[in-house]
Write a structure and sequence with these properties.
Chain lengths: 470, 516
Amino acid sequence: MPKKYHIPIKTAEPRYHPIGKYATVEFREDCAGSCKECVKKKCIYGIFGDNYKHASTMSEPEYLYTCQSCFRCVQECTKGIFSRVINPEYRTLGDEYWKSDIIHRLWFQAHTGKIPVSGAGYRGPFVAAGFDSMWTDMSEIVRPTRDGIHGREYISTCFEISRRVTPLKFNADLSLASDVPPILELPIPLLFQLPETLILNEQILLSAARAAQILGTLMLILPQDYTESLHPYANSLIPCFTSKSYKDYKRIILKSPAVELEDDPNIEKTITEIREIKPDIFIIVGIPLDATAASRALDLSYFDVDTLHFYADEHGKELNTEHPAFLKEMIREIHLKLVDHFVRQKINLVFSGGIAMAEHMAKSIICGADGVIVDMPLLIALECRLCYNCRNGLPCPAKIDHPINPEWGSQRIINLIGAWHNQLIEVMGAMGIREVRRLRGEVGRSMWFEDLEMESFGPVFGKRKIAGIK
Amino acid sequence: MNHKKNDFQFPKIVQTPDRFRNPIGKYTIRRNARCVSCGLCAELCPYGVHPRYDDYSKPLRPLDYRCIGFKCKENDFFCIDRCPEQALTLRRNPILDTLGDYRWTAEMLIGHWEMAETGNLPVVDVEYSLGNSGGGFDKIRFKTPEPGDYLNVNDEDMDTSIHLNKRCDGRPEKTISIPCYGGGMSYGSTALSVMVARAHAATRLNTLTCTGEGGYPQELLPYSEHVITQIATGLFGVREETILYSPMVEFKYAQGAKPGLGGHLLGDKVTPEVAAMRETVAGNALFSPFPFHSVYSVEDHKKHVDWVKEINPNVLVSVKVSTPTDVDMVAVGSYYAGAHVVHLDGSYGGTGAAPDIAKKNIAMPIEYAIPKVHKFLKDEGVREKVCLIASGGIRNAMDVAKAIALGADGAVIGTAELVALECVRCGHCESGRGCARGIASTDPELGVMITEDWATQRIVNMYIAWCKQWCEILRQYGLKSIKELVGRSDLLIHLDYLDEEERSTYQPAPEAELII
């Protein structure tokens, strides 16, 4: 029996208290002082016990890092002195896209490796922009297209970043006539790329590279970051070059399974030259996700390229325009362009920018991506708060700029990806899809806000008068 | 509110206060040191915000959760203005920022706690009918009624009952007196007192509740006429006698909170009692697989239904499914296989623990599924022969009425019943020892925080308050029975489907940005 893909999850405690959502407000003038019934002593989660330093200094407010929001302290205090507010620091986490609850959940997953689970139903908006305006389908009792009844261990999350020859040609004796290029298959549909605009040091690179190696995936890296200490991980690294810079790094090219080249008009020549250095190397071309992306994808599909990497901005938005489209729509456009020209099978598409949650990975693939590239979450796994202090030359509150233990760092990243992998399997299992490759572009296994409104509400309410999501 | 069968009368309202010392309200009133305890505020307030005892003259902490807030300013008993020492201050309770979420806002929670306490619609100005989700039910409104349509009849003369068996197949005609019944919550997932109280409340309201998948505890037997036995994929606790006890059996093919996923009861939760009920080994984790491993087709499903009907000739059959794209096909298939009730469970609801990714993303919200299935069943010519029940994200009486107008016959309610028992929706039903508020826990300490009588009355009170709201809606449109409201989508509007001018005549959708 073939070896099963396994992600070695192990609890990796945070170095600092994750920013808690709540803080207490106490009206101490009414407090009896040494109440034997003090609710702080009775908390069933024991959260106040962890705050022993606060108890001695009596400073205000008291941040509750692990409060589970049961309200019993508020409701049972004999003098009613207790109230709560949202921790002001929690409000400042992230930005309008990387919201505090997303960061909080990423921390939880990096810590425990577990899927976020909660009771009492969904608590968010009905619909929102971006990926939150689509739902994934599920397979009910009587769907003939269900793959069959299989345990989750039989669901494959493998994808390829190697090109394909289509159609295959055969000789008269049925032997293969086509020259089949080498295959590079990865066990999870994601690659790594540490964000360049946040803190990046050797320990962080080592943490991510080590995690990539253990997970069996690959990490994009700039050649100037490719220090000697990373050479043991060469099999898991994809150096990124321009048409000029690659010439200085032949040694690295020879060690690498794949390279990424920045798109330029002479790319075909560069590809040929790199293949002369290492014939079986896999070539990815990095392209900005802008208005020309789809047509450029079509052009490049006729070249000897394995994978196209489109990069959006940090919020998953189209580049170089005043009215950017979101990643979801851009993936559809590029995917369908290649489908219309019968070249989609030849080449692979991966996307980066704005991939913040496991569901974004599944939804990107449904829209037409083969895989995604994870960037900011890698740093969030290392306790980054996305405060952007580092961009302003200020010190990092989570001290990521100080040396961290790469073993700890890689375990945090492994835990995060382990939780994402489990979530991908959950949604695929629900859809009745057994292979992530079959999920690509399978919009039939999704439901879109505009379609549902038209199909279900159209016959009842008539024509929708508000365009988009509001 | 009546119900023809056996001259059923709704139970009486009994005031059932909060279990905790400091109930949470929309407003806070603080009394400062200037108070001389003159007692004027206690004399003035008709809502009992300022308690005072004859033989105790010191000022007591105000029961501010009863305060009706700033709208009281127009009254001559407004304590803040009348206090001779200006010792009182009134504010919106800042804790509201930390309570509730987009779907169940803080005000909706507070409104339901008040209904569960008093059995009446809230007097405090809280928005208990609309959430902040920005779509679905929160953007659907009942049309402005024509004044001439108003039906001037008492609640006692209105009919809120629905029929569960419309097949005319010789099986009992089952009528429930409210258009709702309780959703399945398994033995072990809630405290036993909560489970029994839900059954007791269902009996007093002449409706039903459901065992969930954890088996049928003997404590439910006195209420067996009102308890649905659930058969789910793990078949836990399903035995011939549990099917014989029951007026209705529910096949759970999927559930809205985790559509397409199996259940997983952690080993810690499999106590000796739970293990005995489920006929398994204590301490071992239990899986309810997805889907039914004996059902590959609608024919296989029919085999299941026939099997249950054969065991109990008087039982009705409900089929609970989730809401995939082809939910309409599933519904019609379930009907042809012999179901009396087709129960659609939408993706945003659920009470038990489920992966966040599933709750948010998998399957469509119930608002879309109801009109889709209603129309399809009508086109197939079978709508009149099946009872269509909706659940999953139906939070309040207004949502129930909207669901019915969209095409459902009634609704299944889970979360609101727990909210009546003072659930704050913290979502930590499964972690550690379970629910800190004693609702969803079998912990030796936490699991006994709730008494059966208290919980029964709170649930009864909430539904009686809901009935008052349904009756008012029916009266406005000249309807006497909630059955007449089924499929009356012509009485509904959706804010996004109106011109700006017309939209401005309706209450706008709440739009606050929340930290969740």
